[in-house]
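Supplementary material to the annual report.
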Amino acid sequence: MKLVYFAWVRERVGKTDEDVELPEGIGTVADLVRWLKGRGEEYSYAFENEGVVRAAVDHVHVKPEASIAGAREIAFFPPMTGG
Amino acid sequence: MKLVYFAWVRERVGKTDEDVELPEGIGTVADLVRWLKGRGEEYSYAFENEGVVRAAVDHVHVKPEASIAGAREIAFFPPMTGG
Amino acid sequence: MARTIRIQSEPFDTAVETAILTEGRADIGAVVAFTGLCRDEGGRLAALELEHYPGMAEAEIDRIAGQAESRWPLLGLTVIHRFGRISPGEEIVLVLAASAHRQAAFEAASFLMDYLKTQAPFWKREHLKDGTTGAWVEAKEADDRAMERWA
Amino acid sequence: MARTIRIQSEPFDTAVETAILTEGRADIGAVVAFTGLCRDEGGRLAALELEHYPGMAEAEIDRIAGQAESRWPLLGLTVIHRFGRISPGEEIVLVLAASAHRQAAFEAASFLMDYLKTQAPFWKREHLKDGTTGAWVEAKEADDRAMERWA
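Predicted assembly:
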């Protein structure tokens, strides 16, 4: 599964994207964030306030409880400031 | 006093403008309209529905009860359809 | 504040007018440009003819522009209204409103258009495709209601 | 309906985009053009840098445009959003909405801007006049509230 990061989430994680092999039992975006936070300080820093970081599954905004089953690309980013 | 007419008010009156000498006792726009209607069929046709025709005194929209004392130019026209 | 008001028979150039409003400035964050165009009403119209009251038209638009400036924090305002014979597809009116933020620019432009429709001394008459002169366009109640939003 | 959506680093030409939308048509009575510009924040900023999520940015704007088309009787819609480094006074975003009547064009353009601000995957960071890289621009609660108007 491909993970991509943007803006200060990208800076904190220290990479723009990565491919990960998820262990059993990671069914939702929230599960994935919890797993990522256990991988190192850079992740726990990026996701220190889980309510702030947004997620998209295959280019569609989703809530933390959304399923990631079958997803090709999951993105994490701060609230958008376009326009 | 100069009177000016626009759009279908102009067409019904049959002139774009005219100078008039008002008799005593014409104090308001409504008085002026009443006096004009007595001047001929073209005026009574133009002002047949007094609620429709709008007036401006010296370039400012006014109500029928507005005073015309000291006015240089009084205009009569249909509801505006600009923009 | 830069305020431009023009009544003219010639077409206008929105790009030029926008450049005049924004050139050399770095405090404008939002420009809303409203352009009103002549429709052919399903192929029925050859043209619209716009009559106006010279002198009062400028004065009235200036008054409305002043109201907009006192209601919203504007950084520039342009209103150009054409008169004379205008063919389908051609521009009739341009309103430009510039501000630091979008809300003020959107609201001021919308306010100006609602007031122009109902308060500026312009009258439209139709010229039909069959060569005849059509009716004077009637004022719409919906336009009066739109204006009342701002009261 | 003519729908144009572009994400690009180059500047855009509003006059050209408007001509594409309106050329040869006589059913459009109103075009609202919203232009968002980079401000220097009182001389503090050297530039804004816009990062975006390629692929999702186009998809999300397309989704928002589809919503606008289903809510208002539009005759044309153009959204162009730039990314990369943008200097004060330069354009960031263009929204064009065309309709027979002004209300639909104003509302659709305003709706699109509110959604772009809060839903399109773009992020701004400041570059300061003193040569340093400033902070990421924080999302504004006022923008969320503006979006909720349309719910």
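Helices of chain A lie at 7-13, 29-37, 41-46.
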